[in-house]
Specification:
This protein is mainly alpha-helical. It is built from four helices and no strands. It is globular, with a radius of gyration of 13 Å. The two termini are 19 Å apart.
Length: 88
Amino acid sequence: MSNKELIISLIQQDLKHSQLVVGLDELGLEASERHCLQLLDIVADLMKVPEGDVEFDWGRVYVTYMAECTGVDIEYTADSMRPFAEYC
């Protein structure tokens, strides 16, 4: 697996996780406060995002896609998250 494919796969899984956690939050289970994977930092390291740019530029894009994914139907696999992961 190439570094690029690894990054896309990690983002894809993080988006899927976020989608599920937000769904649990909507049920009143407060999952987002207890189940953070912190993959943003790992992906940023793999992408060699300069220190400080994670919070301001690239991190905003990442979080925006996480929010958009909550509107996508939940499926058994994370395949539907792949286009979001690639754009991110």
